[in-house]
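To close the chapter, one final illustration. This time we ask the reader to focus less on the individual chains and more on the assembly as a whole: which components sit near each other, and how the overall shape emerges from the parts.
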Amino acid sequence: MQSEPTSTTRTLGDLLSPLAAQAEAALAQYLPEEASPEALTAGMQYCVEGGKRLRPALVYLAYNACGGGDDELAARCAAAIEMVHVYSLVHDDLPAMDDDALRRGRPTAHVKFGEAMAILIGDALLTRAMAAIAERGTASAALCVAELATGAGCSGMVAGQVADMELCEVADGLEGLESIHRRKTAALLVAALRMGALAAGASEAQLAALTTYGEKLGLAFQVFDDLLDVTASAAELGKTPGKDAAGGKQTMASLLGLDGAREFGERLTADAVAALAPLGGASEPLTLLAEYLTTRRN
Amino acid sequence: MQSEPTSTTRTLGDLLSPLAAQAEAALAQYLPEEASPEALTAGMQYCVEGGKRLRPALVYLAYNACGGGDDELAARCAAAIEMVHVYSLVHDDLPAMDDDALRRGRPTAHVKFGEAMAILIGDALLTRAMAAIAERGTASAALCVAELATGAGCSGMVAGQVADMELCEVADGLEGLESIHRRKTAALLVAALRMGALAAGASEAQLAALTTYGEKLGLAFQVFDDLLDVTASAAELGKTPGKDAAGGKQTMASLLGLDGAREFGERLTADAVAALAPLGGASEPLTLLAEYLTTRRN
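The assembled structure is written out below.
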């Protein structure tokens, strides 16, 4: 007999599926450019298929938590953050980088389309993301592009990948690993949240609360990702598990042990939730989302 | 005895060197992010060194031709367009793409820093370019990001590279080659000009004139580039010459012959100059620049 889902799980499903549907609609509207070669558009679309749409959900949830405002800008930011996330996966999977063959249960871009096309698909997704927001043509759109580019760029996500690949100096132990995760994962989650807030015309206090939430959530997300890499199967993950351990790479699990890492992740999740206090009841879905992370299996 | 430079050449030098100095200052100010890893910033800076700064010059000249306005936005756009141009060179030079070892007379990024770092340097330059403009925080800044991203993206420069590498369908002969150059080269020159115009609050008529100028100039530029690839030495070019012919690739020179290609380039240059008429005398430097292209040797 199958066990009943807990009430939290059921509520979270209710919460996330309409947001994922909104994200799909936003991607369908804002990813393609009419004059783009068919083969390039098809490659971009292949790569964005099948994600959990966590980052667009953060845009929408922050937007709603701050009372809403420019729906179209929020939708453009939701599509854009997913395109930037996917571009980073496409480039990280390249032979010169992590050399991964499997992603979301399917061949990675360079396996499917060749290495040159994979590089160009990534470039096109990153560039299209910026256009999708900027075409809104407002001062708020400019601020959203700045958030996204800062989170994704040379002091954010790209810096995190540079550090992760040991192409720059990184501190030893937990401090170094945290600084990698802060840039490689958390910076983009923070950008998602802040873009949603900016589309809603949020106050500085609201922006600050969401920034702290995103930083803690990003680290927690990565801690549980490390744990899943040790404990889950390829079928559950949709990608090759155990790669970090096989590569002799430091992870939260190798530094803190499985139990220590889980406790650390749970503390970060609690900190993330606590940071939401200034937003009041409208931020409850963000609380649910953070708590979901401690139970996810893929 | 050395011959005197012609009056056009002397005037053009007078025109371009202060603009190049402005571009260097803009890059120094807007390329680095404080929290970026030193190795990444250094890599980005290595790659932007030594260019002719043609695209920033187009931003400034269009800005001036339209009467000026937001100086800071123009400077940000000038830095950004050069970063986008350089990112495209870094990625195009990769082993999976054109596999070039020499650029601007020095080792290409992947030869100097390794392939992973070269991919990431390119990603960081593209992302930083968008941030540099967007941080201005105005509606005009959003429009400039949209111009840049459209010119650089999946229906512009990236599309041109996809077509150039035969990763999508391309028409035969001159039509196909023109469509490649329009996207691979002209689209970014058009973006440079339109950003400069937008920073000056230009009218639709001014934008349209500069768009036509940029399209013709971009094709002319590529025609003369093809000619130089046949006729110039590595020392003059600062990169490996004759690669197109050796690769059996169609060029304007192979399709039209050397004389035919030169005539075609000169006609395009004349068309570019004619398009400037609505801008009046303030666009004279853009005329000089177009005419310079027919005499350049590198």
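Chain B has 14 helices and two strands. Confidence is low (pLDDT under 50) at residues 1-7 of chain B. With these observations in hand, you are ready for the problems at the end of the chapter.
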